[in-house]
């Protein structure tokens, strides 16, 4: 016998007034009647044995004390234990990941999560009184919903706090958390209640001997969009649409992918996918305006003509941000036409990225005649094999094979047949580049007192970026003309990357896509004090009808937005413009609704108690108190407790 | 209690009573004893020593046998008002004894003025001496003083009281019993005693509303008004109902016993004015029929 709320026992003091009141009650008032015999004859038929008469006098008091006892035990949350059972400490880890939003079975309309919560409730209700349970939710962040307790009421409340999520679950993190909770406990056990998306449970069972899995649901077919992204093809002046679709089911599936941009359907892609097949395709679209693209899996209609569906709706829709088109003005400064031509060709290869009408080619002698404002008007000033002795204080500059003066760097010398030793893959200028394949004839490494190295050879840094107040500069210290492959293939990409880095507000402030629950943070600092974030879970024509908005204050030019539990479209508005991104599931493990075969075929050997044991008895005690009160009232009014 | 207002009511009752009674008994009644009145009752054979004046010569002429004519003897009517003065009569507000004394005074007054004489006999555990030979209205103030001096106390023993009355009062007459009829030994035997002398017995059953429907509830110690004996009882609604039924059954039992034994019976609740009660009884004719 245990009490979850021991303070409730203080209520036992109510027995004192009951006793006093009872004594007062049995001190009867005198009333003179003319003829007592008439009354005596009426009660004469209630003659009992002496023993029973004694009991009878006490019956009312006994009943009242019993009522008080029931109330005291109810308030103290009495739980009866069956001590013959083995005492265990069990942590129930409930999978709250996105896959639990899937249908439990083909026939069951309930989600796996609903079934799991029911299962948790059953476990709590039927547990042994000696066992203490705790509940941990395995969502994006493992969370203890209920610490160890023997109170079924508390466990029920803990189960009620379980909430489904659309994020990837951290099952292993949740199990680690459960292990922490079980430190120092007798007979510790972990029960995972979930669909074990991605087959994590088998791995976890190898690591944790005391771990058992209660599978939820059955294998259900599912088609998922695993990747969806729109990328500008600068060379062809089109947009690439990268789409990856997987059949997570066990049967062949015939579907269509409907691609729409800003609510207008632009492409319908029929697909036939074998079981387990993942199809990744690139489709070409010309998207003049930016916005959001949406890809949606459309299932064939069923025999009743109703739209078909699969096990998980969450991964049937994906969003992607379509960048707004913009062309840049470039000033190319080259010593002669021979050095100028390849670079002009590279820029032409960028198609619409470089605005030919606004771009100019100048010789070094003409350079000196340009004013600072004229220089700053260009989106990029590129020096080839020549650089001025002093760079203007404002502007964006790319110097190839020549170090301009005024930068915190000094030429170290000329390195013959340099080999690329290191490249900063994370830097946006190096995106899509395999710089180790560059084989220039010579390089000009530098010694730095500032700037960030992005490419280095054995001789030193040959790729450096400088971000100074009002000035951004990139130094590429190798002879690009000596490696035609680099010049024709890699340089246009690098040029685009340089333009992107220099005009970051025009490039991606945000990653193209985030996972549900992932924190959105800017890739570079912003000058704003605050930004507005709006998010849209479904397509709406009116952008004002956002699902939610928020105003975020910036700290050191950065913001952190973590309210990304819902997949959908997210827009960040800054003083320099609007930036778009999307939150998509894109998690093969969560989309895989196949229930793996459990290696643990044993029955779940949780010892269960009888009806009264291990349960919160307060409702029953309250009921008993009410029945006793009715009994006492009835007996009193039937004059049996006189 | 017996003030001029009371006396005025009695006078009124007397007038009304005269009108009611005049058509029935002409102020006096025939005795059961045979005597010398003009009203023939029976014949009997002549015996030596009989008064020859009463021989029926017509019968002798026809049958040549001597038969004596018998006549009813006229005598004064004796009214005995037996007033219960036991402790139970002190119950009620105003108490039953107050009411009973008013009724007793009224009945005696009517008897004194319309009939020959009246006795007032209180009884409790035994028959008291009472006040006898009340004739004419001149003694009405003595009667009031006597009644005013009585107290309701002690137990009731009707059997003993009535037995003593029968022994003491050998003449036949009208006996009016004013009582709440609470007697642990029962009332049947007692009333039979009164009937044994061929008295005309009339019972006025005095009751209080509160004893018919007692406002009692809860855990109580009920104390008997006469014996001071007690019983602890929890009075519930159900028990109260049973008591009311038992009380009504008690009244019914008394009434049916009276009817079955040629005894006049009237229930009198204390909230009824005594004069209205007496008039009702007179009009119904039970008391002096």
What's the structural blueprint in terms of helices and strands?
The complex is a heterodimer of chains A (about 650) and B (about 290).
Chain A: E1 2-3, H1 15-26, E2 29-33, H2 36-43, H3 50-75, E3 78-79, E4 89-95, H4 112-125, E5 132-138, E6 142-149, H5 152-160, H6 171-181, E7 188-194, H7 200-207, E8 211-215, E9 223-233, E10 238-247, E11 253-261, E12 264-273, E13 278-285, E14 291-298, E15 317-322, E16 330-334, H8 337-349, E17 360-362, H9 364-367, H10 372-377, E18 380-384, E19 395-400, E20 409-411, E21 415-416, E22 420-423, E23 442-443, E24 446-448, E25 452-457, E26 460-468, E27 471-476, H11 484-502, E28 513-514, E29 530-536, E30 548-553, E31 568-574, E32 577-583, H12 588-591, H13 618-637
Parallel strand pairs in A: 4-5, 4-7, 7-8, 16-17, 16-18, 18-19, 19-27, 28-32
Antiparallel strand pairs in A: 1-3, 5-6, 9-10, 10-13, 11-12, 11-14, 14-15, 20-24, 21-23, 22-25, 25-26, 26-27, 29-30, 29-31, 31-32
Chain B: H1 4-25, E1 29-45, H2 57-63, E2 67-75, E3 78-84, H3 96-114, E4 117-123, E5 131-134, H4 140-148, H5 158-168, E6 174-179, H6 188-196, E7 200-207, H7 209-212, E8 218-224, E9 230-235, H8 237-260, E10 264-269, H9 274-284
Parallel strand pairs in B: 3-4, 3-6, 6-7, 7-10
Antiparallel strand pairs in B: 1-2, 4-5, 8-9
Helix pairs in contact in B: 1-3, 1-9, 3-9, 5-6
Quick synopsis:
The complex is a heterodimer of chains A (642) and B (289). Chain A is of the alpha/beta class.
Key terms:
heterodimer; A: 642 residues; alpha/beta; Rossmann fold; Immunoglobulin-like; eight-stranded mixed beta sheet; 29% strand; B: 289 residues; 2 domains; six-stranded mixed beta sheet; 9 helices
Q: How would you characterize the overall build of this protein?
A:
- The complex is a heterodimer of chains A (642) and B (289).
- In chain A, helix 4 links the parallel strand 4 (89-95) and strand 5 (132-138).
- The mean pLDDT of chain A is 82.
- Chain A is elongated and about 140 Å long.
- The two termini of chain A are 35 Å apart.
- With 642 residues, chain A is α/β, with parallel strands linked by helices.
- Chain A has 13 helices and 32 strands.
- By secondary structure, chain B is α/β, with parallel strands linked by helices.
- Chain B folds into two domains: 4-27 and 76-284, von Willebrand factor, type A domain (Rossmann fold, 3-Layer(aba) Sandwich); 30-75, no CATH class.
- In chain B, 40% of the residues lie in helices and 27% in strands.
- Chain B contains nine helices and ten strands.
- Strand 2 (29-33) of chain A pairs parallel with strand 8 of chain B.
């Amino acid at each position: 016998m245990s009490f979850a709320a021991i303070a409730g026992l203080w209520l036992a003091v109510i027995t004192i007034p009951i006793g006093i009141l009872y004594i007062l009650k049995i001190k009867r008032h005198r009333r003179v009647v003319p003829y007592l015999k008439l009354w005596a004859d009426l009660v004469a038929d209630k003659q009992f044995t002496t023993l029973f008469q004694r009991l009878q006098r006490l019956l009312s008091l006994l009943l009242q004390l019993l009522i008080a006892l029931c109330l005291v035990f109810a308030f103290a949350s009495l739980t009866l234990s069956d001590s013959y059972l083995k005492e265990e400490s069990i942590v129930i880890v409930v999978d709250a990941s996105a896959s639990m939003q899937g249908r439990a079975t083909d026939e069951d309309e309930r989600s796996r999560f609903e079934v799991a919560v029911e299962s948790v409730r059953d476990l709590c209700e039927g547990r042994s009184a000696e066992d203490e349970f705790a509940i941990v939710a395995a969502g994006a962040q493992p969370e203890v919903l209920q610490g160890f307790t023997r109170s079924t009421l508390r466990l029920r409340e803990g189960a009620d706090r379980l909430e489904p999520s659309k994020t990837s679950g951290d099952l292993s993190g949740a199990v680690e958390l459960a292990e922490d909770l079980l430190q120092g406990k007798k007979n510790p056990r972990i029960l995972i209640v979930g669909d074990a998306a991605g087959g994590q449970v088998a791995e976890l069972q190898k690591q944790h001997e005391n771990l058992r899995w209660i599978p939820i649901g059955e294998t259900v077919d599912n088609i998922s969009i695993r990747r969806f992204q729109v990328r500008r093809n600068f060379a062809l002046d089109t947009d690439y649409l990268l789409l990856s679709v997987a059949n997570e089911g066990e049967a062949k599936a015939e579907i269509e992918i409907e691609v729409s941009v800003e609510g207008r359907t632009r492409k319908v892609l029929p697909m036939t996918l074998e079981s387990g097949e993942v199809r990744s395709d690139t489709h070409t679209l010309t998207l003049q305006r930016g916005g959001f693209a949406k890809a949606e899996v459309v299932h064939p209609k069923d025999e009743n003509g109703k739209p078909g569906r699969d096990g998980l709706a969450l991964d049937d829709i994906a969003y992607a941000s379509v960048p707004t088109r913009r062309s840049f003005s470039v000033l190319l400064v080259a010593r002669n036409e021979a050095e100028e031509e390849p670079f002009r060709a590279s820029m032409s290869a960028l198609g619409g990225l470089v605005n030919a009408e606004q771009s100019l080619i100048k010789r070094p002698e003409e350079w000196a005649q340009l004013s600072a404002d004229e220089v700053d008007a260009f989106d990029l000033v590129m020096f080839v094999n020549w650089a001025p002795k002093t760079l203007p204080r404002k502007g964006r500059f790319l110097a190839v094979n020549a170090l301009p003066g005024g930068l915190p760097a000094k030429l170290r010398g000329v390195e013959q047949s340099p080999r690329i030793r290191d490249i900063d893959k994370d830097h946006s200028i190096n995106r899509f580049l395999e710089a180790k394949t560059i084989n220039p004839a010579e390089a000009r490494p530098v010694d730095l007192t500032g700037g960030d190295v992005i490419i280095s050879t054995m001789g030193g840094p040959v790729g450096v970026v400088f971000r100074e107040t009002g000035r951004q500069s990139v130094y590429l210290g190798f002879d690009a003309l000596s490696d035609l492959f680099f010049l024709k293939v890699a340089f246009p990409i690098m040029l685009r990357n340089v333009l992107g880095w220099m005009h970051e507000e025009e490039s991606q402030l945000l990653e193209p896509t985030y996972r549900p629950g992932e924190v959105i943070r800017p890739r570079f600092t912003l000058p704003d004090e605050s930004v507005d974030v709006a998010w849209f879970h479904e397509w709406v024509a009116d952008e004002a009808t956002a699902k939610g908005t928020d105003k975020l204050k910036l700290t050191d030019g950065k913001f952190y937005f973590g309210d990304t539990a819902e997949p959908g479209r997210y827009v960040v508005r800054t003083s320099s413009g609007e930036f778009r991104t999307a939150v998509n599931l894109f998690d093969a493990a969560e989309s895989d609704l196949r229930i793996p075969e459990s290696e643990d075929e044993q029955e779940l050997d949780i010892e269960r108690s009888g009806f009264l044991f291990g349960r919160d008895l307060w409702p029953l005690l309250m009921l008993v108190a009410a029945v006793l009160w009715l009994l006492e009232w009835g007996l009193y009014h039937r004059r049996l407790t006189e | 209690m017996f003030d001029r207002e009371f006396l005025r009511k009695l006078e009124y009752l007397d007038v009304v009573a005269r009108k009611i009674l005049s058509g029935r008994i002409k102020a006096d009644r025939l005795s059961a004893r045979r005597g010398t009145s003009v009203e023939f009752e029976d014949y009997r054979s002549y015996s030596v020593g009989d008064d020859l004046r009463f021989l029926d010569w017509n019968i002798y002429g026809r049958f040549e046998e001597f038969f004596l004519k018998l006549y009813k003897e006229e005598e004064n009517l004796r009214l005995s008002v037996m007033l219960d003065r036991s402790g139970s009569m002190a119950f009620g507000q105003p108490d039953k004894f107050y009411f009973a004394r008013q009724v007793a005074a009224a009945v005696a007054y009517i008897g004194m003025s319309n009939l020959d004489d009246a006795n007032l006999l209180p009884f409790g555990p035994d028959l008291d001496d009472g006040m006898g030979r009340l004739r004419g209205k001149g003694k009405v103030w003595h009667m009031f003083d006597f009644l005013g001096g009585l107290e309701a106390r002690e137990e009731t023993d009707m059997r003993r009281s009535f037995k003593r009355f029968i022994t003491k009062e050998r003449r036949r007459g009208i006996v009016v019993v004013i009582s709440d009829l609470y007697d642990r030994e029962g009332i049947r035997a007692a009333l039979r005693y009164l009937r044994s002398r061929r008295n005309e017995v009339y019972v006025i059953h005095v009751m209080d509303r509160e004893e018919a429907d007692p406002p009692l509830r809860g855990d109580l110690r009920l104390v008997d008004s006469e014996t001071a004996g007690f019983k602890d009882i929890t009075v519930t609604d159900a028990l109260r109902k049973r008591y009311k039924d038992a009380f009504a059954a008690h009244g019914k039992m008394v009434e049916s016993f009276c009817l079955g034994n040629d005894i006049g019976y009237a229930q009198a609740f204390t909230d009824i004015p005594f004069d209205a009660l007496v008039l009702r009884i007179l009009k119904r004719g039970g008391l002096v029929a």
